[in-house]
């Protein structure tokens, strides 16, 4: 996919960095697609701190998906050093725009930015154990299930933690 200063052009869509004025669109997409919702300041915090890894997908100028990431500093394997790890906090694509490669393009843009811009060495995410389409996408992108978090979601559903190197 060609890109131009943070904009990725896909098959009928573009992926670009989120701007402050896009946040109401991102919040709308989150609220109509996911049961986990966040207050506005949560989105602002991620935009302010990791805005180059926060992307919006558009089709014909309409916001149809987003990915919100952050970078965390964690103890390395030897416990003598710290390393940066990317965290996919939230990703969503509106119902009528799924299965077009938008989610995959959002994931790829986010992973590239977390690695190239923020220096992350790996990335992880949580996903509902029942969300087979998302799990298949993450596995296609090289993620592996590393553990289960019992009752992670507010409705009591378990989550897989999935991770991959960058």
TrEMBL record:
Kindly give the Gene3D superfamilies that the UniProt entry links to this protein.
3.40.630.30
Specify the domain of life of the species encoding this protein.
Archaea
Domain (N-acetyltransferase): residue spans on this chain:
13-166
Q: What NCBIfam families does this protein map onto?
A: rimI (TIGR01575)
InterPro entries hit by this protein: AcTrfase_RimI/Ard1, Acyl_CoA_acyltransferase, Ard1-like, GNAT_dom
Cite the GO molecular-function annotations of the record. Answer: metal ion binding; protein N-terminal-methionine acetyltransferase activity
Q: Which gene encodes it?
A: rimI
Q: What class of enzyme is it?
A: transferase
**SUPFAM superfamilies assigned to the protein according to its UniProt record, in alphabetical order:** Acyl-CoA N-acyltransferases (Nat)
Q: What is this protein called?
A: N-alpha-acetyltransferase
Could you tell me the EC number(s) of this protein? 2.3.1.255, 2.3.1.258
């Amino acid at each position: 996919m060609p890109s131009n200063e943070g904009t990725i052009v896909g098959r009928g869509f573009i992926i670009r960095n989120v701007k402050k004025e896009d946040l109401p669109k991102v919040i709308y997409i989150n609220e109509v697609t996911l049961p986990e919702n966040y207050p506005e300041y949560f989105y602002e915090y991620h935009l302010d701190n990791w805005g180059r890894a926060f992307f919006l997908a558009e089709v014909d100028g309409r916001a149809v998906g987003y990915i919100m990431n952050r970078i965390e500093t964690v103890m390395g394997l030897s416990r003598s050093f710290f390393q940066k790890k990317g965290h996919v906090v939230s990703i969503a694509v509106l119902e009528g725009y799924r299965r077009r490669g938008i989610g995959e393009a959002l994931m790829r843009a986010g992973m590239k930015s977390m690695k190239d811009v923020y220096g992350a060495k790996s990335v992880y995410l949580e996903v509902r154990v029942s969300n087979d389409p998302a799990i298949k996408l993450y596995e296609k992108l090289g993620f592996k299930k590393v553990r289960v978090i019992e009752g992670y979601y507010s409705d009591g559903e378990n989550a897989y933690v999935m991770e991959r190197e960058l």
